[in-house]
From TrEMBL:
Keywords: Amino-acid biosynthesis, Branched-chain amino acid biosynthesis, Magnesium, Metal-binding, Thiamine pyrophosphate, Transferase. GO terms for molecular function: acetolactate synthase activity; flavin adenine dinucleotide binding; magnesium ion binding; thiamine pyrophosphate binding. Binds 1 thiamine pyrophosphate per subunit. Binds 1 Mg(2+) ion per subunit. This is Acetolactate synthase. It catalyses: 2 pyruvate + H(+) = (2S)-2-acetolactate + CO2. The gene is ilvB. PANTHER family: ACETOLACTATE SYNTHASE CATALYTIC SUBUNIT, MITOCHONDRIAL (PTHR18968:SF13), THIAMINE PYROPHOSPHATE ENZYMES (PTHR18968). GO terms for cellular component: acetolactate synthase complex. Belongs to the TPP enzyme family. Residues 1-123 form the Thiamine pyrophosphate enzyme N-terminal TPP-binding domain. Pathway: Amino-acid biosynthesis; L-isoleucine biosynthesis; L-isoleucine from 2-oxobutanoate: step 1/4; Amino-acid biosynthesis; L-valine biosynthesis; L-valine from pyruvate: step 1/4. Coiled coil: none annotated.
Length: 591
């Protein structure tokens, strides 16, 4: 059996039916094998970075590993941003790169290159993969593939890379004689069950003694396939839930206990809930400075903190937590729920929830009163969200568009939001939407992007047209790099270098029409009515929302302030009325 054929059959055996990539000299054997195989497709995009993002979208929506392939040299290095995105957001993806023939390898380390496009991608990506290897012996292919996929999907997920030289790809092998990873002494069983019952008792004791608890749900909930368990935990305990950016779709936003998205660009009402809580149960969130504020002493300062994460290195990272538990979230919640039910423990937090609901009423994320047909980005996002039904995937890019959508789209049952968190790469939305669409063609997929990010992978419009993908594209066009422009206004004396001065964008309606995408421009709120039909048909459309170039994401947490004091600042008397605990001492501020 040809080795490249074996690789494709191995990928198929893991339930993968799509491989994303871009053809190149060093992977021609692999691509040829994909085309000859049954029940698996090669999805050719127009840039390797797009292929990596598409594999990530495929993995996140389908719950299985995503796969992308690229040729040696520039093809492999073009994958790097997508590999990093998977690594920081814990997404299991297998990246396979072609390499020059083994007889073309550099013979000495002090030689830069011998083979054409020879590049040591293994070493380059070691810091952003769970496993990175170049196959030097054809008989080791089973071992490396099994180990790579196992590590990608075990524990805290992440990307892996297998680099295969061209001459090995075309080598004939006997699959029955190959030794695998699972047969080796190196293999260890996956993480076993949670046994720290004394910690469960301590958690329950803190819940019983709490008057104002909050569950903080992070991206780990979705990664652990634990959204149903989260909902059950909330229903058993009646504890309100806030989410991180990555955890936005871990619970429906119309749930009576949903208390908002918290953090730097989070909703003001969610941040007030966290600031005033007396117990914070953190489930699968990393507590980054975008959640806590760089001034960590101000964060949830009168609360006990319980932190549960599968990655032990994320525990006690910024401050000493009261209870830190390394565990799979689904296992933890299952045992906690069981013990709560056995002991018939159910607290009443109605007064606390009433307070949180008062925050929601005071600080909605979009205007509740019309402003002479003026377009408000948050209102547009809210209305677009309302137009989309169940089974809709919102794929967001990076920048102001991402925050407007995250703040104001109210997630319904069976809806998803794909946010790129740790890497934060512009150009993510469109190819990730393509991957999501290929994961399940019955889903509605909406790509929300800014004018800056749209231009970074705009070539994938051709993929959408070629493959007749019914992806809806919403371009929030403020004709500027809005997020950085705001930074320049705050911290650089409004010197708009590279955001207004030296930045430009084309007529997107003309560009998209040239690609063959039905295109529309919205300039007033009144025109938004025609979008409803476009969002719910079976075709692809571009909807450009034409905004002023002076746009803001508000509320926004500025450097050093506690999370409850986002800009624009509310009146101190109003803040004092909303605070159950004392306002943060000015002498302790970093600002």
């Amino acid at each position: 059996m040809k080795l490249s054929d074996y690789v494709v059959e191995f990928i198929k055996s893991n339930g993968v039916d799509k491989i994303f990539g871009y053809q190149g000299g060093a992977i021609t054997h692999l691509v040829d094998s994909i085309y000859k195989a049954k029940d698996i497709e090669f999805i050719s995009l127009f840039h390797e970075q797009s292929a990596a993002f598409a594999a990530e979208g495929y993995s996140r929506v389908g719950g299985n590993i995503g796969v992308a392939i690229a040729t040696s040299g520039p093809g492999a290095t073009n994958l790097i941003t997508g590999i990093g995105s998977c690594f920081f957001d814990s997404i299991p993806c297998l990246f396979i790169t072609g390499q020059v023939n083994t007889y073309e390898f550099r013979r000495r380390d002090n030689i830069r290159q011998e083979g054409f496009q020879e590049t040591d991608i293994k070493k380059i990506v070691e810091s952003i993969t769970k496993y990175s290897v170049m196959v030097n012996d054809a008989n080791d292919i089973k071992y490396h593939l099994e180990k790579a996929v196992h590590l990608a999907k075990t524990g805290r997920g992440g990307p892996v890379l297998v680099d295969i030289p061209m001459d090995l790809q075309r080598t004939e092998i006997d699959p029955d004689k190959l030794k695998g990873y699972f047969e080796s002494n190196e293999y260890n069983e996956e993480i076993k069950g949670f046994e720290a019952y004394e910690d469960i008792d301590n958690v329950i004791e803190l819940i019983k003694n709490s008057k104002r608890p909050v569950i903080h749900a992070g991206g780990g909930i979705r990664l652990a396939n634990a959204t149903k368990k989260l909902k059950e935990l909330v229903e058993v305990t009646s504890i309100p839930v806030v989410t991180s950016l990555m955890g936005l779709d871990s619970i429906e936003h119309d749930h009576p206990k949903y208390a908002g998205y918290m953090g730097t660009y989070g909703t003001r009402y969610a941040n007030l809930a966290v600031a005033n809580c007396d117990l914070l149960i953190v489930l699968g969130a990393r507590l980054t400075s975008r959640q806590t504020s760089p001034n960590v002493k101000s964060f949830a300062r009168e609360a006990k903190i319980i932190h549960v994460d599968i990655d032990e290195t994320e525990l006690n990272l910024k401050f000493k937590e009261d209870i830190s538990i390394k565990c799979d979230l689904k296992v933890f919640m299952n045992k906690l729920i069981s013990k709560l039910k056995i002991n018939n423990i159910h607290e009443n937090y109605d007064e606390w929830m009433t307070k949180i609901n008062s925050y929601k009423e005071q600080y909605p994320t979009y205007p509740t009163q019309k402003k002479e047909n003026k377009i408000d980005p948050n209102e547009i996002m809210h209305l677009i969200g309302e137009m989309c039904g169940e089974n809709t995937i919102f794929s967001l890019d990076i920048g102001q568009n991402q925050m407007w959508a995250s703040q104001s789209i109210s997630i319904k049952k069976n809806q998803r939001i794909l946010n790129a968190g740790g890497m934060g790469p512009m150009g993510f939305s469109l190819p990730a939407a393509i991957g999501a669409c290929y994961s399940d063609r019955n889903l509605k997929v909406v790509s929300i992007v800014g004018d800056g990010g749209f231009q970074m992978n705009i070539q994938e419009l051709q993929t959408i047209v070629r493959d007749k993908l019914p992806i809806k594209i919403i371009v929030m066009n403020n004709h500027v790099l809005g997020m950085i422009r705001h930074f320049q206004e705050l911290y650089f004396d409004s010197n708009y270098y590279g955001t207004i001065e030296g930045y430009d964008s084309p007529d997107f309606v003309k560009v998209c029409t040239a690609y063959g995408v039905d295109s529309h421009r919205i300039t007033t709120l009144e025109e938004l009515g025609k979008v409803n039909e476009l969002l719910n048909d079976s075709d692809s459309h571009l909807i450009e929302v034409d905004l002023s170039n002076i746009t803001y994401v508000i509320p926004k947490l500025e450097m050093g302030k506690p999370i409850e004091e986002q800009s624009p600042l509310v009146d101190r008397e109003e803040l004092s009325k909303n605070m159950i605990i004392d306002i943060y001492n000015k002498s302790q501020r970093m600002d």
